[in-house]
């Protein structure tokens, strides 16, 4: 599924990770690297939104704060 951030289509991938039990939402920007997430937000198995963590791809030097805030908002809507 795609969401729009500042006019750019961002691929949003929502899945349950079978190995860790986490629920994960990845945000991929095709203009950067289409096969890698810029940021991933996850909730541990049995956790709730208050347990969510955000991980930024270490290959990405900078991620604009506005993108992080937007991604958190999208993830929160999907996880509720």
Assembly state of the chains shown: single chain
* Cα Rg: 12 Å
Mean pLDDT: 92
| Distance separating the two termini | 17 Å
Number of separate strands: 5
Fraction of residues in β-strands: 35-45%
How many helical elements? 1
**What topology, given as strand order, has the largest sheet?**
1-2-3-4-5
Main sheet?
5 strands, antiparallel
Helix content: 10-25%
Q: Quickly give the structural class.
A: alpha+beta
User: Which consecutive residue ranges, at least 5 long each, have pLDDT under 50?
Assistant: none
* Overall geometry: globular
The arrangement of helices and strands along the chain is EEEEEH
Q: How would you describe what is shown here?
A:
By secondary structure, this protein is an alpha+beta fold. 19% of the residues lie in helices and 35% in strands. The protein has a five-stranded antiparallel sheet with strand order 1-2-3-4-5, with helices on one face. Strand 2 and strand 3 form a beta hairpin. It starts with a strand and ends with a helix. The model has no long low-confidence stretch (mean pLDDT 92).
For the structure shown, list the relevant keywords.
5 strands, 80 residues, 19% helix, single chain, alpha+beta
In short:
The chain is of the alpha+beta class. 19% of the residues lie in helices and 35% in strands.
Question: Secondary-structure map with pairings?
Answer:
Blueprint: E1 2-5, E2 8-16, E3 23-28, E4 39-43, E5 53-56, H1 65-79
Antiparallel strand pairs: 1-2, 2-3, 3-4, 4-5
């Amino acid at each position: 599924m795609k969401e729009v951030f500042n006019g750019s289509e961002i691929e949003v991938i929502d899945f349950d990770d079978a190995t860790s039990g986490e629920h994960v939402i990845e945000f991929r920007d095709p203009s950067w690297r289409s096969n890698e997430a810029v940021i991933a937000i996850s909730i541990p198995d049995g956790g709730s939104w208050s347990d969510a963590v955000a991980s930024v791809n270490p290959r990405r030097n900078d991620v604009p704060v506005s993108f992080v805030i937007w991604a958190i908002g999208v993830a929160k809507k999907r996880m509720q």
